[in-house]
Amino acid sequence: MPPDAAEPMRPRWRAEPSPARLPLDHPLRAEVLRRHRDACNAGAPVYVDPGSGYQVMTADALAARGTCCGSGCRHCPWVGPAG
Prior knowledge:
Blueprint: H1 29-42, E1 46-48, E2 55-57, H2 59-65
């Protein structure tokens, strides 16, 4: 947990996005998780979603904020309505 974290974090927050944001049966789930893992390992704050082409923030980048922004981010690490 980041030292200044204001909220509790979900279990396995770095490896597993919220099922509400990336369903277990999503057809590109494995590729999304690979891209996310690769971006985190490289220290990149975002990766390109293979389906939409949009940039998606990594769990590491979101955790560095210290709190949930409430936007429903795919890799939100925080416990709460948006995470």
